[in-house]
Amino acid sequence: MFYLLLEAARLEDLAGRFVGRLEDLAGRLAGRLEDLAGRLAGRLEDLAGRLAGRLEDRFAAAFFTRFAIICLLNLLVFLS
Count H helices, E strands: the chain? Predict the structure, then answer.
């Protein structure tokens, strides 16, 4: 009977240590996932900013190209 009580106490101790390790691992995993999510968000913001800059540059180039063509056509009409 005494042996069973000792075995139960040992198993309870092992279970407690196992739970402690699982909680520690879960905490570290949550920290790493949070860090990865933060870095991913930063990279996505950077990519979105660069894409917006390129789209603005293309829009500006297209606008000024059309403006220059219209000015040249008006000049040709004026000179003819």
Answer: 1, 0
Residue type, 49: G
pLDDT attached to residue 69: 92
Instruction: Give the C-alpha separation, 26 to 36, whole Å.
Output: 15
Q: What is the pTM of this model?
A: 0.56
Distances (CA, A) of 17 to 1, 11, 25, 30: 25, 10, 12, 20
Rg from Cα positions in the chain = 34
Structure tokens at 42: 């930063």
Query: Rounded CA gap, 35 and 41, in Å?
Result: 10
Q: pLDDT tens digits for 16-55?
A: 999 999 999 999 999 999 999 999 999 999 999 899 988 8
What residue numbers bound the domain in which 75 lies? 1-80
Q: How many domains does the chain have?
A: 1
